């Protein structure tokens, strides 16, 4: 038996406990420590209950509502996945996309911001920006907000050398041509795959002697000569039939880090100018992109003029330029020289931030 002095606090109830195989001193210390632990736990629980009772009901309801909203937001955002490139295998097995005529995507929607010239375009853009900000964030949207708010003034007051037709993003560095280092990774990747793209073009071009315009090619309006294009991606929309004919080139697009593939300003195509062709001066739709031309066949007498500055293409080399500047192209060679052929792909302007790219993909999504 353990005898405990009656004056010791909270130990009078332990006098009758039998602790086998323990010395009296060790048993007493263990029991006292255990008793104080239980008392501490009881006091902690009581304090927590009293804190809940004393808590203001309105504050508790507010915190609960905010927590529910946060959980809903995380669930809603988590459900939305970025639209990846369709795999080539899916294209091979999938049904034909709707809205295709001769392998070329024509806009069927009067609400398309890329083709719309209505006075309500800015309202549409601002509505899309607000919808994006509600889903994600206003962070980093200052320049886009400024551009949409004052779009009319920007487009009307721009100097004639640079005047994009649809959307102008302010405060971007402007230059008719860009150095190769502006998008070094993608430029080098395209040039390393020059032979791959050229081989797929030559296989396509064999069909030309058999008919005036083979399936998948688009004839463009020019004052003289012929300008035809073969689109893999047209205004942010993949052309499945054409991609099946150039599977390696299409796969290459998925490896480019800055290719614009999810909004209406993104294109990828093979562009062919016959001898004697003149593409008259015109402006591109926006300054958020830079256009990349990879020379496939570049005979003499061919020239690109952007912002009044002439340049020539070179086979296996990329030429980067801002097509929101006034630009034109010429092929003044002879029939013996053959056509001028480039692979054209639209890349992001290097000074458009990642958050802005995501927002612009949302605002200018195809069909929005």
Automatic annotation (TrEMBL):
It is found in: Membrane. Pfam families: Asp_Arg_Hydrox. Residues 191-350 form the Aspartyl/asparaginy/proline hydroxylase domain. The keyword Manganese does not apply. InterPro entries: Asp/Arg/Pro-Hydrxlase (IPR007803), Asp/Asn_beta-hydroxylase (IPR051821), IPNS-like_sf (IPR027443). GO terms for molecular function: dioxygenase activity. Its main location: membrane. It comes from Balaenoptera musculus (Blue whale). This is Aspartate beta-hydroxylase domain-containing protein 2.
């Amino acid at each position: 038996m353990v005898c405990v002095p009656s004056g010791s606090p909270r130990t009078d109830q332990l006098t009758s406990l039998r602790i086998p195989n323990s010395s009296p001193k060790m048993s007493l210390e263990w029991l006292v420590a255990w008793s104080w632990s239980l008392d501490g736990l009881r006091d902690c629980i009581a304090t927590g209950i009293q804190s809940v009772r004393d808590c203001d009901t309105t504050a508790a309801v507010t915190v609960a509502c905010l927590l529910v909203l946060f959980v809903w937001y995380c669930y809603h955002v988590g459900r939305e996945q970025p639209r990846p490139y369709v795999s080539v295998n899916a294209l091979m097995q999938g049904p034909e996309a709707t809205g295709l005529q001769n392998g070329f995507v024509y806009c069927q929607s009067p609400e398309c911001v890329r083709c719309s010239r209505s006075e309500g375009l800015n309202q549409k853009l601002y509505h899309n920006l607000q919808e994006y900000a509600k889903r994600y964030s206003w962070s980093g949207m200052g320049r886009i907000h400024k551009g949409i708010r004052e779009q009319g003034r920007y487009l009307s007051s721009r100097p004639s050398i640079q005047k994009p037709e649809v959307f102008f993003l302010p405060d971007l560095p402007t230059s008719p041509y860009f150095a190769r280092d502006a998008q070094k990774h993608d430029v080098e990747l395209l040039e390393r795959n020059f032979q791959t793209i050229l081989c797929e073009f030559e296989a396509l071009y064999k069909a030309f002697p058999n008919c005036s315009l083979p399936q998948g090619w688009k004839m463009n309006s020019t004052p003289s000569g012929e300008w035809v294009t073969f689109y893999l991606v047209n205004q942010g929309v993949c052309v499945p039939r054409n991609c099946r004919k150039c599977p390696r080139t299409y796969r290459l697009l998925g490896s480019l880090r800055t290719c614009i593939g999810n909004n209406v300003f993104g294109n990828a195509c093979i562009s062919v100018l016959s001898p004697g062709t003149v593409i008259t001066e015109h402006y591109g739709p926006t300054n958020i992109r830079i256009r990349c031309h990879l020379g496939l066949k570049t005979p003499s007498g061919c020239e690109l003029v952007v912002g009044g500055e002439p340049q020539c293409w070179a086979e296996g080399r990329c030429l980067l330029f801002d097509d929101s500047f006034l630009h034109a192209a010429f092929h003044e060679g002879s029939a013996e020289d053959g056509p001028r052929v480039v692979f054209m792909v639209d890349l992001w302007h290097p000074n458009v931030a990642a958050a802005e790219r995501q927002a612009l993909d949302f605002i200018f999504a195809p069909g929005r």
